[in-house]
Amino acid sequence: MLLQGTTMKHNQRKQGRNMRETWSWFLANLGQDLEINNSHHIAFISDRQKGLIAAVRDLFPNAEHRNCVRHMYQNFKTKHKGKALKDMVWNAAWASNNVIFRKCMEDLENEDKAAREWFNHPERPFNTWTRSMFRTHIKCDMLLNNLCENFNRWLLCVLVLLLNLELLNLELLCVLKFLKLLFVMKFLKLLLLVFLREAGV
């Protein structure tokens, strides 16, 4: 089952604790609605939205929380560019076991030591982004949250379509009003001509 939670950045100043409270509220309701009593079989994947990781840790302490590799790579490539590095990162992410993963990370270090060091940050533990370290009982090897983004894109397309239809209706209404006004003006002109003829002018 795929579930999506989306936040709107309606208030850029609403950060930290407030976002954690918002995510906690959402996740508490989600847990209640889905009757989740034990979260050991659940995996969350995110691009590290403010407050979400702490809220998941509080409410679903046994759940696996993964980093979206695509978002992580976007941050990585701001300092470490190039197709070779990109391929190495994705190979490490897709590695199916620890031996392959370690080899990928060695290759990355041989290519660019600073790029390899980037992954030592505590916000990027290996078990949150490489398939080789995901829990096997969850039976999900997704590395990115593209499904959510595709869903968002689909919703946006529907919204644009609805707005276009609304604009089309508005334009049609304006045209009809204009035609009605034109008809009334022609009718009044005709009445005026008849009146003038009757008056002998």
Topology:
Layout: H1 17-33, E1 43-46, H2 52-59, E2 64-67, H3 69-76, H4 83-94, H5 98-111, H6 113-118, H7 146-199
Helix pairs in contact: 1-2, 4-5
Domain MULE transposase: 20-75
Pfam families: MULE
InterPro entries: MULE_transposase_dom
Q: Give the C-alpha Rg.
A: 29 Å
The multimeric state of the shown protein is single chain
- Residue share in β-strands: under 5%
Give me the number of helical elements.
Answer: 7
Largest sheet: 2 strands, parallel
**What is the string of SSEs from the N terminus onward?**
HEHEHHHHH
Distance between the termini: 83 Å
| Tally of separate domains | 3
What structural category characterises the helix and strand content?
mainly alpha
Strand order of the largest sheet: 1-2
Please state the overall shape, judged from the principal axes of the Cα atoms.
elongated
Total strands: the figure is 2
What ranges have pLDDT less than 50 throughout 5 or more consecutive residues? 9-13
Mean of pLDDT:
79
InterPro entries: MULE_transposase_dom
Pfam families: MULE
Domain MULE transposase: 20-75
